[in-house]
Amino acid sequence: xxxxxxxxxxxxxxxxxxxxAVVVSKLMGLADPHSYGSGNxxxxxxxxxxxxxxxxxxxxxxxxxxxxxxxxxxxxxxxDMVIAAVAIAVMLGHFFPIxxxxxxxxxxxxxxxxxxxxxxxxxxxxxxxxxxxxxGLKISSLAALIAAIVAPFAALYFMENxxxxxxxxxxxxxxxVRHKANIQRLLNKQESKIGKGE
Length: 198
What we know:
Elements: H1 3-16, H2 20-27, H3 43-47, H4 52-75, H5 80-95, H6 108-118, H7 120-137, H8 140-158, H9 162-178, H10 180-187
Helix pairs in contact: 1-4, 1-5, 2-4, 4-5, 4-6, 5-9, 6-7, 6-9, 7-8, 8-9
């Protein structure tokens, strides 16, 4: 692996480490998302602040950073292995941001951005699944979990590059693992609905 590739991977981690939930909240004079609701620095929790604009900007920012890191790696024509490492790095940056004491989010929006860079068809499929579940049942975590499960199958169907399909499966697994507490609450029928509770 070249020094340029290593720099790209580190840059992807640093980009992923930008927590838009915290940045947007601070710029808009809102409380730190770590301090209320679920404590998760993500769009769903920011929505609990009462600001739909802040939540939308958080969602957009987290998605764009995932897309940007992988898009640049693709644009520079790095080998598949490096592109995979960049995708993983930007996700790890979101999960464990160096700028915010390694307390990151659950990666749904960032994963969507990564998927969009790799395959708009897979991204659109997962977004569609998320929207149907989220608006139908009003449970963001359940929507994210189902979309994550669908992602690898959509990748196998739409993508000729099976290396990227395997990468998407890894990212989906990472998102599932980050939702461990949500899965437990869902099993106990204690998970809150979008815009309500903790």
